[in-house]
Design a protein that fits this description.
Elements (H helix, E strand, L loop, with lengths): L17 H41 L14 H32 L7 H22 L1
Helix pairs in contact: 1-2
């Protein structure tokens, strides 16, 4: 006979909290996708910087039509990889914080968590435009 009084070591979510936890899981997956995209872009830029360095050796900068190699591309690629790791760590922190708040029943959406990353993207986009155009 099965004993119905066996306690499960893992805490079960309240049935009315399940949709909130599923939404939180979808959010962490979006953070993961974003972090992977940023890291991939950083690796691609870093590898492309090797092409720029080799190309600058073939086409000197003093020759008409020749351009100087962008020596900052390697640092930009490394910076994007670091940014991707930071984004992933922020996603993990956000996921755990929201899961705890949902379980405690006191979750309140934070506007700062929306506005700050959005402003960072706007600033990085503006800096990228300046870097590309000048």
């Amino acid at each position: 006979m099965a004993d119905n009084n066996i306690e499960h070591p893992q805490q079960q979510a309240e049935p009315h909290h399940v949709p909130e936890h599923l939404a939180n899981e979808r959010t962490i997956l979006a953070w993961v996708r974003t972090a992977i995209a940023i890291i991939t872009l950083g690796i691609a830029i870093n590898r492309f910087s090797l092409f720029l360095v080799e190309f600058s050796r073939i086409v000197p900068s003093g020759v008409p039509g020749g351009r100087t190699a962008n020596t900052h591309a390697e640092e930009l690629g490394i910076g994007l990889v670091i940014l991707g790791v930071v984004v992933m760590l922020g996603g993990i922190w956000h996921y755990l914080d929201v899961a705890r708040a949902i379980d405690e029943g006191n979750y309140r959406a934070s506007r700062v968590r929306i506005v700050v990353p959005s402003l960072v993207v706007v600033l990085l986009g503006g800096a990228s435009l300046v870097w590309l155009l000048w």
